[in-house]
Amino acid sequence: MPRILAASVFSANSGESAAFFRSSRMLILLLIISGICSGLRSGCFAMPNTILVKRLRRSLYASLVFQYLCPTLLSDTYPNMGIVGSLTSRLGSDCQRLSYVIGNDIHLIIRNAIQGTGALINLLTLSWPLTLPTLIICSVLAIIFSIYGRYQKRAAKLMQEFNACANNVAQETLSLMRTVRAYGTEGEEVERYKRWLDELAFVSIRESAAYGLWSTSFLTLYRFTQVLAVLLGGICIMNSQLSPEQLTKYILYCEWLIYATWRVVDNSSSLLQSIGACEKVFHLMDLLPTDQFLSKGVKLPRLMGNIQFVNVSFHYPSRISLVPILDRLNLAIQANEVVAIAGLSGSGKSTIVNLLLRLYQPVSGQIYMDGLPLDELDIRWLRENIGFVGQEPDLFNMDVKSNIKYGCPREVKDEGIEWAAKQAHAHEFISSLPHGYQTIVDNDLLSGGQKQQIAIARAILRDPAILVLDEATSALDAESEHYLKGVFHGLRNESRSKRTIILIAHRLSTIKTADRIVVMDKGRIIEMGDHTELLPKGGLYSQLIGAQAESMA
Ligand SMILES: Nc1ncnc2c1ncn2[C@@H]1O[C@H](COP(=O)(O)OP(=O)(O)OP(=O)(O)O)[C@@H](O)[C@H]1O
Fold first, then answer.
1. What residues contact 356, with CB distance under 8 A and at least 6 apart?
2. Where, subcellularly, is it found (predicted)?
3. Which CATH number do you get for residue 282?
4. Interior CA angle at 462 toward 460 and 466, to 5°?
5. Domain span at residue 326?
6. pLDDT tens digits for 512-524?
7. If you measure from the C-alpha of residue 491 to the centroid of ligand 1, how many angstroms do you get, rounded to a whole number?
8. What's the complex ipTM?
9. Which ligand 1 atom is nearest residue 391's CA?
């Protein structure tokens, strides 16, 4: 409509059309500014956007990794959200959302705000009484938006939550596919996933309906502004208060103003939606690394491997109970000693290792390493000097060679990797894999025992001062286990002068030859000695040995 009006004005009077062009300098200026803003988008916004999102992902990932390494903080911060999977799925979706905001919304808001301000200044210069109705319409638009915006922010937050929960169920089901298949619970899992998707759909539909209402309100007001502008302008022309040229400008500026207002509030709504969705992302980013990562701590020239637990009591932060997991534990392990820890399930054996690796801090008491309190030592240096093989070693989705080399603080050649694999009795099966040491490891490719052998090779390669084996041979066949027992004992004297080995095993045949066996029950040490000393005592150790011999028979 404004274009038709303008055409009629130009054809009616060429002198007036020239004047129109002259006085429309502001229009041209605004067009240039709008062009510059578009340029800013592709140039200035796109680059920082990419860098920012990359940094954001990296810092978030780092924060997740660090928080996971320090479960105390994780469970304190997210008491209902202990599952790292849900955090990682948020990492993807929330960052994507933030990336969209930075790439699209912000530059559109700035561009339209400049455009709207220019149109408003021109309208006020033209005639302030005529500007008033347009301003009222813009204010109504802003009020409707503020109501809708608040609703949208809430909806966006819920949608992100439900999305993350659905992703989490999917991730969990796929990673536990064997269990799901074995128990025939495919239907239940689909239901569980569907439940979250239903919640998501419910909120999305309501949010879409609200958006529809908002869009209808805008379009109605937009058309109403055009009609009002023509009506009021027409009346003014009839009263000779306005020239046809001014009427054309008036209609154009009105359209610009209302359109800019709509774009600003619409993009702001998208911005609000993203802010709602990204609150958790910012919350995660605000978490500071725990002291153990900030403090440098002491690095000894060489770790000898003397360990001392003095009156150590501990309970997990997520499970504060009256009975502690470790109860005033006192244990001294000499350098170069092979100490085995035995006991019933849940007696606190792995917890000792968790404290030694400083994954948790004791509630009371102190742990000393070569006479120095553990928390005074540099955490990275400490972990570099401890080789750990856990109960269910998870390998990375990298080739076998990289998995063996993983976390090794020094440069190693292929021969070194092969040597470690041979020590762990793994070379033979690795050589039979489709691409040998270059074969990419995935969960189904290797058996539990083979994964353990690779994890053992990794620990051996690090040449640590302290080797911790927590049920590290539980999945191995008897022959491999027997062979490895010899390797572990041999390792004590190989390549370094001292090496302490801590063995945890339910299969008591594994620990029989240890220098000392520590027997635990309910977080306390109840027996200590070597196999020949403990067997005749008739305590828990001899009962466990008897029970195992019976079950074998
Ligand atoms: N992350 C955790 N959060 C809360 N409680 C935990 C956690 N890890 C272990 N526990 C609890 O601490 C107790 C001791 O667990 P721990 O793993 O040390 O026992 P364990 O003797 O090594 O058992 P197993 O021989 O079966 O591995 C158990 O009751 C267990 O439920």
1. 307, 367, 374, 386, 466, 468, 502
2. Membrane
3. 1.20.1560.10
4. 75
5. 307-552
6. 888 899 999 988 9
7. 29
8. 0.96
9. 27
